[in-house]
Specification:
about 300 residues, mainly alpha, 14 helices, globular, disordered N terminus, disordered C terminus, transmembrane helix, membrane
């Protein structure tokens, strides 16, 4: 089953929009936890090798869900060309991010990636014809300013690893837009294509560059892969339920997690700039959430998209 382009241009049901926001918040929380672990791992092991081991665990986790309906989601795939593009963007995003955090602090890489809501909001207005009002644009820009205040990018922010992170940010933005286009696809199939792409790419590269990990590292990576599947499912569900331009700004909450996890895991005490910036980011996200809830109560829920 696929959806017409006209249906994609219609507003998402308001009751689904808030659920989409909550799923995005859950995804960002889990991704933030996994990123801390990944930062530790890439200091020793090649990113592709981590992709390979994590991908194996993720595939094993998703396979029973696809087998429930005798793999019907695999046999009836809407928009196969976009599915391939989406998978490629997911692999590129992950590899570029892992490569970047190997050479620059996680905070600097996060700064680059938090430009994604700007790209997504712009792409949503251009390609998805989503209505992006001045209030949402303002909240997005304010959130990004908060990120800059919090992280105070140093000279490392304009280095070649930072440019790699920016390239990954662009890939992530395209990935989110394409996910919105193929929202009629099974959530489990969407997640499977992402992890299969990472598994295959990681396996090919690891055949040439492989460092034998300890069994403890293997177990931790397998757990990480399974946990990452939950985040992927939350992210995909978010983009299915709500317009990309609405949920994308909530990626700014990554900076809040960077402050919390940096203190708990690495003992980093946040500076005044970080606290002020994180507060600005949180306020921007809360404003969008409250704005959508207010609109939901004022406007009648539109008709759902028509399948073709």
């Amino acid at each position: 089953m696929s959806f017409s382009l006209q249906s994609l241009r219609g507003a998402a049901p308001r009751s689904s929009t808030l659920a989409g926001i909550l799923f995005m918040l859950a995804a960002i929380t889990i991704f933030s936890l996994v990123n801390v672990f990944s930062k530790v791992m890439v200091a020793t092991y090649p990113p592709a090798q981590l992709f390979f081991i994590r991908g194996f665990a993720a595939i094993a986790t998703l396979m029973p869900f696809l087998a429930r309906d005798n793999f019907a989601a695999v046999r009836h795939v809407p928009r196969p060309g976009l599915q391939v593009l989406r998978m490629a963007m997911s692999v590129a995003d992950g590899m570029l991010f892992f490569t970047a955090i190997k050479y620059i602090p996680l905070a600097d890489a996060t700064t680059c990636y938090l430009a994604a809501p700007i790209f997504v909001t712009a792409f949503s207005a251009i390609f998805l014809r989503e209505q992006v009002g001045w209030r949402r644009w303002t909240a997005v820009v304010v959130g990004f300013v908060g990120v800059i205040i919090a992280l105070r990018p140093t000279g490392a922010a304009i280095s070649w690893p930072a440019l790699i992170a920016l390239a990954g940010c662009l890939c992530q933005s395209v990935f989110m837009i394409v996910t919105r286009y193929v929202r009629g696809t099974s959530s489990f199939f969407l997640a499977m294509t992402q992890v299969v792409g990472s598994f295959v790419f990681g396996g090919i590269v690891s055949a040439f560059i492989f460092l034998p990990p300890t069994w403890l590292i293997v177990v931790l990576l397998l757990i990480s892969g399974t946990v990452n599947v939950v985040a992927v499912l939350c992210l995909n569900r978010s983009l299915i339920l709500a317009p990309a331009s609405v949920v994308a700004p909530f990626q700014y909450t990554m900076i809040v997690w960077a402050v919390v996890l940096g203190f708990l895991v690495f003992g980093d005490v946040p500076s005044l700039n970080t606290i002020i910036g994180a507060t600005v980011v949180a306020c921007a996200g809360i404003y969008i959430f409250l704005r959508e809830r207010a609109v939901m109560h004022r406007e009648p829920e539109p008709n759902p998209p028509t399948a073709v």
